């Protein structure tokens, strides 16, 4: 009898009972039934019915799928990495009619991404950021969950034929619904109505993120939310039902918002953030991020990545403006402390501010201190941009600039770091290192003097005993040669014994392992060897770069 023989008439059990064919699944879900009705009406020459069917296609919602897949809100946050990456990717695509992606989908992705960034910036939840070839990586901490996503660079995107956009659009459809519910729940958690009402003037000037930050900072509306995603779904459905009856109220709130936030008042956003009367329940890390750029005022030139810096700087407590219409303050403002530029030269310079490259902002965020600006000035090659997602201790290699940042962080913890804007940090560190070097040199000099004094007393004693210098030198030479030979042979013997002992212990341990464990052990050893080779390669490159730099200086 075959192993999987099933007698006739017996029901299927387990996974076999759950399996259905594709044709049965299509019939069960009634996919493409609408198209069949349209074709049937056209075949019967019933043009009116065909037009009605085409103008009223069936609609569906993914609310139930979101609730089934994520029973709690924390589950949705844990699975938000791919969602944010895909939404930000489509938000960067060109919104052109006739392309494979609808314009409304791109606008919706742009709106959702800006709403997410505005919440992260307002709650100071951003923790890490890194500029790579693929784009800009961000990591935020929301309700104890670390969320990492990637945004493309602000460049002209081209839709290629190598990508199957139908599959990506299927994922995007679900992710749009998920992110909408997540934003709804997060906005209600900080007592802000959702969807937000933006300043139409700023929205027309493509400053949606800044308009959202202004809206959130007012704390418009007082609402409460549940910790379950199901509650969020029901609340959003109720909001959608009442949307048509709240048109007058929305216009009134928009007028109040514009009255509270005059566009020509400098620094309105950060003033409202500071004057918030909410209870301070932030942890130490959030407080540290919140005060990093406190009392600093930034101005963005037109060539820098504006949207990224508008997201990062307010998230760490700074005030920011840009070159163009709708900006809260202009370039001639005397309170500006830092101007972000990315050009080889600057035509006009204000002596009251520092001109730095955009990398300085990202490095300050990752180091959590205000770094010196000398290495990031206009026209200079900036220091290496280190990734905060790499653990240097685990990798076995610590870059030189990482060690410099560690020393600066230690100085900041000891309150040696001067106030932001003061550039005497390097001088203070150099002075401290020079004092330490001088003390070490004094100790070595004292030790040498003591050895010379002891040698003088020994020679004086031998001269009194009648020992000549020639006899003493011959004895010392013979003794030194014998000692050297003995030391060399002893060291070689010890090294051989050590290697043999290590080999024997490894052989004994592998002999007692199973085949699977031996394979795993070999894989671990191969990984360690590759890591050592990588470290040696990095050290070699560092040595070559230092030698080439010294040759250029000569």
Commentary on this structure:
- It is found in: Nucleus, Nucleolus; Nucleus, Nucleoplasm.
- One of its GO terms (molecular function) is ribonucleoprotein complex binding.
- Residues 233-249, 478-506 have a biased composition (Basic and acidic residues).
- With 554 residues, this protein is of the alpha/beta class.
- The chain has a 4-stranded parallel sheet, with helices on one face.
- Strand 1 and strand 2 (136-142) form a beta hairpin.
- The chain has helices at 15-18, 22-29, 33-43, 47-55, 63-69, 73-78, 81-91, 103-122, 165-189, 200-204, 208-218, 229-242, 247-260, 268-274, 284-290, 306-315, 359-367, 392-395, 400-413, 425-465, 469-511, 515-553; strands spanning 126-131, 136-142, 145-151, 297-300, 319-322, 338-340, 354-356.
- Residues 224-234, 240-279 and 416-423 have low confidence and may be disordered.
Secondary structure blueprint with pairings:
Layout: H1 15-18, H2 22-29, H3 33-43, H4 47-55, H5 63-69, H6 73-78, H7 81-91, H8 103-122, E1 126-131, E2 136-142, E3 145-151, H9 165-189, H10 200-204, H11 208-218, H12 229-242, H13 247-260, H14 268-274, H15 284-290, E4 297-300, H16 306-315, E5 319-322, E6 338-340, E7 354-356, H17 359-367, H18 392-395, H19 400-413, H20 425-465, H21 469-511, H22 515-553
Parallel strand pairs: 4-5, 4-6, 6-7
Antiparallel strand pairs: 1-2, 2-3
Helix pairs in contact: 3-4, 7-8, 7-9, 8-9, 8-11, 8-16, 9-12, 11-14
